[in-house]
Design a protein that fits this description.
This protein is mainly β. It has 6 helices and 16 strands. The chain is 11% helix and 45% strand. It has a 16-stranded antiparallel beta barrel. Helix 1 packs across helix 2.
């Protein structure tokens, strides 16, 4: 990396490194101008004694705020699940598992590389066991415990995306990206760790056959008030969460994905309407093991192409008069897909969610939802050979997020799942989720 002012840049880098080290000392914070001010370098990096340098820090901003001024922001989530099938399912038992999510965003303009350029890096891993197998459900009750891959528990980079802003409202981007950033909804999204846990309320499952969890791709987006209004992507059709993916880039075809998300203002309350579509040219020959839809790996008739069309809405029914960003409302999702290669041909869900209205619990949140999933008539007979009779499925999930501390959220959760597998009884799933954000 070559900068115009190598001496100043070196000073800023050393000060950033020192600030990052100071983050591990809770009592230490930094001055008003943070690591981006050369005076801090003089006071900190040129002092022969580190302790004296620490004493020179003003305690006005946290070290994270200072790093953000330099273009570096970090957020991490360690989410633990203890869920059990209290009745029905394959067997009644409890399972403990978890998921680590580590995200870094870099403003390369502030670092002097290129104005308007950004880098997003996400690493993920899972640990323990999930409740998916005991529940007998095809749609995971705790999505995060299956990601980024069901094969291993290693740490993988699932996002490495470079974005260039062409204007305030238009961006282009390329790199490795994951599917959970799509199908945005105010009350039913949250990557399975901050809102609902069941995949049916995190994204629309009909799109998961065509869109891999993590893969290489490129696209552009038009922004409205900093949020994507229209996006268009071209993606590699195979999952490369465990590899770089360059050697297999577009070797099996390509995926085209597009979304349009429009803000609404019905009854003078905010909301959104989203419409999306996907199409894959991949030559499908089997139902691969996917962490987002747990199906047995079985061969299907080789055919080319798969598509999906989906939509969702969110709308606030109540908005806090003291804070317009708080409130609660309803959400809906729906989608259709081809029968020949997609195990789900139709899906819809509906529910309520948002911030708590209980006195003194302003930071709590809640959600309750119902979904219905129709199994493909063409693929169902093949699944029956592996697991017995197959039909449609439906379910309910309700949760309440308790903000125990600024960094810890504890979430009791209950789910009822009516199985697609006719030989398996309805599963009643009870559990608790603990998310530590740092």
């Amino acid at each position: 990396m070559v900068l115009r002012k190598p001496v100043t840049s070196r000073r800023r880098w050393l000060a950033s490194l020192l600030t990052l080290t100071a983050c591990w000392i809770p009592s230490v914070s930094i001055g008003q101008d943070g690591c981006c001010d050369d005076s801090d370098y003089s006071a900190v990096c040129c002092d022969s004694h580190f302790e004296d340098a620490c004493d020179s820090f003003h305690r006005e901003l946290s070290c994270r705020e200072s790093l953000a001024e330099c273009g570096l922001t970090f957020s991490s989530n360690l989410t633990q699940f203890y869920f059990g099938t209290v009745d029905g399912g394959v067997k009644q038992t409890g399972r403990y598992g978890g998921h680590g999510d580590y995200l870094a965003n870099v403003d390369l303009g502030k670092l002097g590389v290129h104005e308007g350029m950004f880098l997003k890096v996400r690493a993920e891993h899972r640990f323990g066991d999930s409740i998916v197998e005991p529940s007998g459900a095809f749609l995971p009750a705790t999505l995060a415990t299956e990601l980024p891959t069901v094969q291993t528990r290693d740490l993988y980079i699932t996002n490495f995306v470079i974005t260039q802003a062409l204007s305030e409202s238009c961006i282009v981007f390329a790199g490795k990206m994951d599917s959970l950033d799509g199908d945005m909804n105010a009350f039913a999204h949250g990557r399975g760790i901050t809102q609902f846990s069941n995949v049916s309320f995190v994204v629309n499952p009909v799109a998961l056959r065509t869109i891999p969890y993590a893969t290489l791709g490129a696209g552009f987006a038009y922004l409205h008030e900093g949020q994507p209004m229209f996006s268009f992507l071209v993606l590699n059709p195979t999952d490369t969460a465990r590899t770089v993916g360059l050697s297999e880039l577009f070797s099996e075809g390509a995926v085209i994905s597009s979304e349009l998300r429009l803000p609404t203002r019905f009854c003078d309350r905010p909301g959104h309407v989203l419409v999306g579509a996907t199409y894959s040219t991949r030559d499908f020959a089997n139902l691969d093991q996917d962490p987002r839809v747990i199906l047995p790996t079985i061969p299907i008739e080789r055919s080319s192409g798969s598509w999906s069309v989906y939509w969702n809405t969110d709308h606030y029914l109540h908005v806090d008069q003291r804070d317009s960003t708080r409130g609660w409302g309803y959400f809906t999702r729906g989608g259709v897909a081809d029968d020949s290669n997609n195990p789900l041909s139709y899906f819809w869900s509906i529910g309520l969610g948002g911030n708590s209205t209980l006195r003194g619990r302003d930071n709590d949140s809640f959600g309750i939802g119902y979904y219905f999933s129709e199994t493909s008539n063409e693929i169902a007979p093949l699944l029956e050979l592996a697991v017995g009779g197959i039909g449609d499925s439906q379910g309910i999930e309700t949760f309440y997020n308790i903000q125990a501390t600024p960094f810890l959220t504890v979430t009791p959760d209950f789910q009822w799942v009516s199985q697609a597998r006719s030989a398996v009884d309805d599963a009643y799933i009870l559990g608790v989720r603990a998310n530590i954000a740092f």
